[in-house]
Specification:
The structure holds two protein chains of two kinds. Chain A is mostly helical. Chain A has 13 helices and two strands; from the N terminus they run H-H-H-E-E-H-H-H-H-H-H-H-H-H-H. Chain B is 67% helix and 5% strand. The two termini of chain B are 45 Å apart. Classes of the chains: A mainly alpha, B mainly alpha.
Chain lengths: 314, 412
C-alpha cells in the first residue's frame, strides 16, 4: 500500500507541461478524418469536371451548333443530327405522368397515415410502403413491360398502345416515387404543431376540414419539397424507361408511343461497345451534364425549402 | 367555414349542414384510405406478376430423339449410365473440356442429366405460359399445344430451381443460371463496402465530432445531401470517365501484371458503386453518432480522455449498430442498382466465375435487365426467377437491418 502511494504521489507532483501535446497522433487522425469528409466535395467536383470536359468536347464540335441543338427535333449524333428535343420531351412526358400518379396518391396516403390512422395501424402500414421503396428499379421495369403495358393494351386496344410506350413507364414510375412523396409529406404533416389542430377542433371543424384547411396549408412547404424531390427522382430514373419506354429517340407527344428518354438513351448507347472520343461518347456526357444540373438545382431548391420550414416550427 | 357569410345556419339548417359536412368528411376519408389500398394493390400486383412468370407450363420439343441415346426412359437412368452416354456421344474435345472444368464423376446426377439435355438431346422451347394460365386454362393449353405443336411435350415447370442458382450463364434460357451473376454482385458489393464504409464513417465522425460550425462544414453537409440525390446513371458516367478510362492501368490490373482485361472490371464497378452509396453511408452514420448521448462524451472528457480516445472508446462502440444498419441498407441499394453497371460496362454474357477484382463480370440486376428485354417468353420466365432471387436477397438484408435498428432503439 505504501509503495503504491508513493508512485501516485510521484506522478501527481511531476510538473505537467500543458502546451506539449501528449498524443501527437491525434492531429494525424483528425487530418485523415477531414480528408474523408472533404472527399464528398471532391466527388462533386469530379462529376462536374468530367461531365463538363466531355460535354465541352461535344459542344466544341463545329458541327454542333446552338441552333441545331435546340432548333431541330432529331437526335442521332452518329450521323450529324443534334436536336435534343426528342429526348427532352419524352423525359418530360414520363416524369409528368409519374408525378400525376404519385403526388395525389402520395399526399392522400400521407394524410391518411398522419391524420387518420391510429399509431398501431401506422406502424403496420408503413413497412408496406418501405418495401415498395426498397424494390430495385429494374424490377419495376419488368413490371412495367410485362404487367402495365398488357393492361393498357387490354384497356385501350393494341392498335393505340405500342409494346414500348411512355405511359406504362410513367405510371410505374409514379408507383415507384409514391413512397418517397408520402413519407416526406407525412414528415411535413406531423411536424405541424398540435395546437393548430386543437384550435380548429375547438372552432367545430371536422377532422377532414382540419386536415385540408389547417394542417395541409401549414405543411405546404414540406409537401412542395417532396414534390420537387419526386420530380428530380423521376427525371433521373433510368431502368424503368430503359426497359419499358422504348429504344430510339422519337419526337412525339403521344404517351402511348415509344420514345427514349435522356437516361434511357445513355443506358442503351453506353451499354454497347462505345469508342472513346467518338461524338456518340461525348454526346452522352453532354446529356448527363444536363441531367446532373437539372437534378442538382431541383435538390437544392427542395433542401432550401426544408431548411426554411424547419426553422419555422422547431 | 366561409368568412364572407354574414349569418350562420341555425336549428334544422344547422343540422342539415352538419350532416353534409360529416358526409363529405367520411367520403374523403375513404378516398385517402383508397390511395393506400392502391399502393398496397400495386405492390401485390408486382409480386404476383413476378411469381406468375416464374412458374408455368412449357411446351418444348426434343431436337434429337432421346431414344437415339438410350433405350430406357431418361428419368430412369443411373448416374453411371448418364456418364457413359455423355462419353460415347460427345466429341472427345468437348468431353475433355468439361472434365477439366470439373471432373465428370464428381458431378451430381441432376447436373449430368442437364448436360445430356443441353448438349445432346437439345431442347427447343416453343411457348411458355404464366402460372395463372397454367392453372385455370390447363385444358385449353393442352388442346392448343396438341394442335400447334404435335411433336411437343408439355411440362409444368418451376424456373426457379437449385440448378438455376448454381449454373452459370447460358445462351439457352432453359439451361441458364444466375451463379456468375450472384458471384459478380457479391464481389462488386464487397469492394463497394470496403471502399465506402471506412471513408463514410470517417467523414461522419469528422462532421459530428470534429468540425466546427463554419462555412466549409455547411458546404460539405449540403454537398453530401445533394450527392445522395444525384441520379445513379450520372455516377455511372463518372465511373466510366474516371475508373474505367482514366485509371485504366489500375482498374484493369495491368499495373499488377494482369494482361487480358480492359478497365471494365469488377473493381471499376465496385468503386463506382462505392461512390454512389458513400453519401448514404455518411448520412446514416451521422444519425447514429448523433444519437449517442452527450453525457458519454462529457464523462470521457471529464476523466481526461482526448477527443479521439472519446470517439474510439465511447462514441463509436455505441454508434456501431446504427452504422451497421446504415451500411446494410447501402448494400441493398448497391445490389439493386442497375444503371451505373450498364454504363461502366458489365458484360452480359459471362459463363466463367469471376476470380478476382480484375475479371470481367455480370451482376444479378444486369441479367434481369438483359432477360427482360429479350423477346422470347422463356427469357421473361428466367428474368422472373432471377427477380425472386434478388428480392429474397434484399428482403433478408433489410430484415437484418430492421432487427438491428430495433435492438438499438430498445437501448436508449
Amino acid at each position: 500500500m505504501k509503495q503504491e502511494n508513493t508512485i501516485m504521489e510521484n506522478q501527481l507532483f511531476r510538473p505537467l507541461d500543458l502546451k506539449k501535446k501528449i498524443r501527437p497522433g491525434e492531429s494525424v487522425i483528425q487530418a485523415l478524418l477531414f480528408i474523408a469528409g472533404f472527399l464528398s466535395i471532391f466527388i462533386t467536383l469530379a462529376i462536374v469536371y468530367e461531365l463538363g470536359k466531355e460535354a465541352w468536347l461535344f459542344f466544341g464540335n463545329p458541327d454542333v451548333t446552338f441552333a441545331k441543338f435546340f432548333g431541330t427535333t432529331e437526335w442521332s449524333p452518329g450521323i450529324g443530327k443534334y436536336g435534343i428535343w426528342p429526348l427532352v420531351t419524352s423525359t418530360l412526358i414520363t416524369s409528368t405522368i409519374a408525378i400525376f400518379v404519385s403526388l395525389p396518391l402520395g399526399l392522400a396516403v400521407a394524410l391518411f397515415l398522419s391524420e387518420y390512422a391510429s399509431p398501431k395501424a401506422r406502424s403496420a402500414l408503413k413497412p408496406i410502403l418501405e418495401i415498395l421503396a426498397g424494390i430495385p428499379t429494374v424490377v419495376y421495369g419488368y413490371f412495367a413491360l410485362l404487367f402495365m403495358t398488357p393492361l393498357l393494351q387490354s384497356i385501350f386496344g393494341k392498335q393505340t398502345v405500342e409494346v414500348y410506350n411512355m405511359a406504362s413507364a410513367g405510371l410505374v414510375m409514379g408507383i415507384m416515387i409514391l413512397p418517397l412523396i408520402s413519407s416526406m409529406s407525412e414528415d411535413a404533416l406531423s411536424a405541424v404543431p398540435r395546437a393548430l389542430r386543437e384550435g380548429a377542433y375547438a372552432m367545430g371543424a371536422t377532422k377532414f376540414e382540419t386536415s385540408i384547411q389547417v394542417v395541409l396549408p401549414a405543411a405546404l412547404s414540406g409537401i412542395g419539397a417532396a414534390l420537387i424531390i419526386g420530380i428530380s427522382r423521376a427525371v433521373g430514373e433510368t431502368m424503368i424507361v430503359a426497359i419499358a419506354a422504348g429504344s430510339g429517340p422519337n419526337f412525339t407527344f403521344n404517351p402511348f408511343k415509344a420514345a427514349e428518354t435522356m437516361t434511357g438513351h445513355i443506358a442503351r448507347i453506353s451499354g454497347g461497345d462505345l469508342s472513346y472520343n467518338s461524338i456518340d461518347y461525348t454526346s452522352l456526357f453532354a446529356i448527363a451534364l444536363m441531367l446532373f444540373l437539372v437534378t442538382l438545382i431541383l435538390n437544392l431548391i427542395s433542401q432550401g425549402i426544408i431548411n426554411k420550414f424547419r426553422q419555422r416550427y422547431e | 367555414m366561409n368568412p364572407k357569410r354574414d349569418h350562420y345556419p341555425e336549428g334544422e339548417a344547422l343540422h342539415y349542414s352538419l350532416n353534409r359536412r360529416y358526409r363529405r368528411a367520411s367520403i374523403w376519408q375513404t378516398l385517402f384510405f383508397s390511395a393506400l389500398v392502391i399502393a398496397i394493390l400495386s405492390l401485390a400486383a408486382l409480386l404476383y406478376n413476378v411469381i406468375d412468370g416464374a412458374f408455368g407450363y412449357v411446351a418444348f420439343e426434343y431436337k434429337n430423339d432421346p431414344s437415339e441415346f438410350s433405350a430406357k426412359p431418361l428419368d430412369d437412368l443411373s448416374k453411371q449410365e448418364l456418364l457413359d452416354i455423355l462419353k460415347a456421344n460427345l466429341s472427345s474435345g468437348a468431353f475433355t473440356k468439361l472434365e477439366n472444368e470439373k471432373p465428370m464423376d464428381t458431378r451430381s446426377k441432376s447436373v449430368l442429366y442437364t448436360l445430356l439435355l443441353e448438349r445432346l438431346i437439345q431442347i427447343d422451347t416453343k411457348q411458355t405460359w404464366s402460372m395463372t394460365d397454367s392453372i385455370f386454362r390447363s385444358a385449353k393449353i393442352k388442346a392448343e399445344v396438341a394442335e400447334k405443336y404435335p411433336e411437343a411435350k408439355l411440362e409444368f415447370r418451376s424456373w426457379l430451381t437449385p440448378v438455376f442458382l448454381t449454373t452459370p450463364m447460358s445462351s439457352k434460357a432453359e439451361f441458364a443460371g444466375v451463379r456468375t451473376a450472384i458471384l459478380g454482385s457479391l464481389w462488386m458489393v464487397g469492394i463497394a463496402i470496403l471502399f465506402a464504409l471506412p471513408i463514410g464513417t470517417g467523414a461522419a465522425i469528422y462532421l459530428q465530432e470534429y468540425a466546427s460550425k463554419n462555412f466549409l462544414t455547411r458546404i460539405i453537409q449540403t454537398n453530401i445531401n445533394n450527392l445522395a440525390g444525384v441520379p445513379s446513371i450520372v455516377y455511372g458516367m463518372l465511373g466510366l470517365a474516371i475508373f474505367v478510362r482514366a485509371l485504366e492501368p489500375f482498374t484493369s490490373g495491368s499495373l499488377f501484371g494482369v494482361t487480358d482485361s480492359n478497365g471494365r472490371t469488377i473493381l471499376s464497378a465496385g468503386l463506382t458503386m462505392g461512390t454512389l452509396v458513400l453519401p448514404l453511408i455518411i448520412i446514416n452514420a451521422q444519425e447514429a453518432i448523433k444519437s449517442v448521448p452527450d453525457s458519454l462524451r462529457q464523462a470521457a472528457f471529464g476523466v481526461g480522455a482526448t477527443r479521439w480516445q472519446t470517439v474510439w472508446h465511447h462514441v463509436l462502440p455505441n454508434a456501431l449498430p446504427g452504422i451497421l444498419t446504415g451500411s446494410i441498407l447501402a448494400v441493398s441499394r448497391a445490389i439493386g442498382e442497375t444503371a451505373p453497371l450498364i454504363v461502366v460496362g458489365a458484360s452480359t454474357f459471362i459463363s466463367i466465375d469471376p476470380d478476382g477484382p480484375f475479371s470481367k463480370f455480370t451482376a444479378l440486376p444486369i441479367q434481369i435487365y438483359q432477360w427482360t428485354t429479350r423477346a422470347q417468353s422463356e427469357f421473361h420466365s428466367i428474368a422472373a426467377a432471377a427477380i425472386i432471387v434478388l428480392l429474397i436477397l434484399l428482403l433478408t438484408l433489410n430484415a437484418t437491418a430492421i432487427l438491428l435498428r430495433n435492438r438499438v432503439q430498445r437501448k436508449y
